[in-house]
Amino acid sequence: MTLKLVDRIVTAAAVVCLVASTVMILANVFYRYVVLDWLRGWSREAEWLVPLYDALNRAFGAVSVTADEVPGYLLVWIAFLGAYLALRRDGHIGFDLLILSLPARAHRVLRIATEAAILAFLGLLLWQSLRMIRVDGATEIETAEIAQGWFMAVLPIAALLLALPIGLRLLGRLHGENSNGVQAADIPPTPPLPLQGGGSTSGATASSSPLEGEDRGGG
User: What pTM did the predictor assign?
Assistant: First the structure.
């Protein structure tokens, strides 16, 4: 299984979680503001709306509380799956000014040490999350008969997903490869932000300051 296939599976899972969370939130908003507020008030004045109100109240009222809790858990899935996708496109925030200023050998050693430390942290996360699932995973959430372990499972899954490209990258560095040694993800890069005032970075490099103009014109 190549990393690009893993990228597609993770992207699909993140989309499913996002869509499910959005649908639940919209259903909850519809129930609270349309059914309980507007439709209930209208049904007091128009009796022909009472059957519609009763039907919608029974349909949405049974899942309203659950639809209020589950999106919060799905947000955790979205965040961790998104962390993997961001890693695959080098989208995480990094401050590499010091590393880039080091000699090549020191740069390589520091990169290896950093990635080894990340792998150690991910190993700790995997171990502790599995322990947490064994202890509390069978406990059901407050609003539905759904075990919390289904939502906690994203922690060991994310630890393994994040460790996969980092481990391959570390192996590549240990073997002296200049590149990351990991197949790039099929995700378009983030476009550069324009400068203030609508200018672009290319235009900024070509422009000259007022002082430079004065020096050229002053003779």
Answer: 0.73
